[in-house]
């Protein structure tokens, strides 16, 4: 009987130990979550380290450069034209003033056709507006005479 009591007490002790180990594991997990959240949230009002400040400044600079690409587009186009002109001059093509590769030529063609369509649409709109203004002026003159 003593042996049965000992084994029951031992089983109860193991069950209690397993329960305590499970609670310890759960509390460690909760503690890790709290520490991680504290690390993220706790730095909100803190000053940045010099390395973080340098990285932030560099990222801000890159963002501002990417946000304003038209500043560099004109200069890049000028450089591209100069390189192409120099390349065509080095090849010794005396009868051609310049040479465009087919891809660039197609891009220019598409751009000019798009620009031409836009100008045609703009002229059409201006003509319609001018006709509408003529009708309005005629109606106003009729009202003034009446």
UniProtKB/TrEMBL annotation:
Domain (Nup54 C-terminal interacting) ranges: 98-136
Subcellular location: Nucleus
Primary localisation category: nucleus
Record GO terms (molecular function): structural constituent of nuclear pore
Single GO biological process annotation from the record: nuclear pore organization
Keyword Nucleus: yes
Domain Nucleoporin Nup54 alpha-helical: 13-81
Gene Ontology, cellular component aspect: nuclear pore central transport channel
Pfam families registered for this protein in UniProt: Nup54, Nup54_C
This protein's UniProt keywords: Nucleus, Transport
Designated name of the protein: Uncharacterized protein
Database matches in PANTHER family: NUCLEOPORIN P54
